[in-house]
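re: that complex we talked abt at group meeting.

here r the seqs, copy pasted straight from the sheet so there may be weird spacing, ignore it
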Amino acid sequence: MRKSPSAARRTRQRDAIEKVIGSSDRPLALEEILAGASREVRELGIATVYRSIKLLTERGQVVSVEVPGVGVRYESSGKAHHHHFHCNGCEKTFDLHACPFTEPPSLPDGFSHETHAITIFGKCDTCGHRPKPQERRRTARRA
Amino acid sequence: MRKSPSAARRTRQRDAIEKVIGSSDRPLALEEILAGASREVRELGIATVYRSIKLLTERGQVVSVEVPGVGVRYESSGKAHHHHFHCNGCEKTFDLHACPFTEPPSLPDGFSHETHAITIFGKCDTCGHRPKPQERRRTARRA
DNA sequence: GTCGGTGCAAACCTTTTGCAATCTA
DNA sequence: TAGATTGCAAAAGGTTTGCACCGAC
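got the structure back, here u go
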């Protein structure tokens, strides 16, 4: 699986997974991808989703987005430089197209900047209106 | 373990763990804490480290710092608002005392800001000089 | 027909938990 | 001595991998 980019076949499951990620305007959790793709391909195995994501990531079509304290999300690559917003209510992650760094961040002497990741937490437009916060699920702890 | 803050005894292992975290000026990985505390308390069990960190976190003395794609680090709380720098060479995480947000980040309509996390990746002063990058260990993948 | 892909189950890794022994207060 | 804490090993969660069968080409 490492040298000649042999074959690479087109399958229903792979198509479905690619489509779900590609047609989303925000990063998706594994369960969201599994759920979405399962609508087209019943009995989709979770291992297949993992493998497909890995393949797509190696191909450079998908990038993983780690939301601190929440988990990993996946989104299609090729978007312009951007960051993420995570809703503490519905636990969905959204793209944010603003970046506070108009120039490289200032760092201590000798430190160099290569990349950076910014996640803003808060409530999305839908959850901000609701009086009662939805209950959190799973490992959603944060400092 | 949830209501009256009963006793809470002082033990060598707990002291050692607290000391390691408290005396560090940067967030530490679990292995770093284990290694450091083990110097004072031989045969320190990893479960004890996890339990102590959990306790300290619940007490508010420690906060966890998740470095995207790298893993969790722990640092003592009570520091002023700050962010983190992660060296892609030595895999150490450092505090950065600058924050690019002089005012709340602008968000889409209806979205509200509660907190944010910023991690800058690059090379620290030590690793920046080395011509050959050190080899990465474990699960240090990043998009 | 080939050989890549899939699904299932086992393997892995990291973190948590049960329990008997140990240690603090 | 009572009850918190520890260490070990088992359990739990999430992700990866081995393998036989299936399906794209």
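couple things i noticed - Chain B has one domain: 5-142. Chain B touches chain A through 42 residues (CB under 8 Å).
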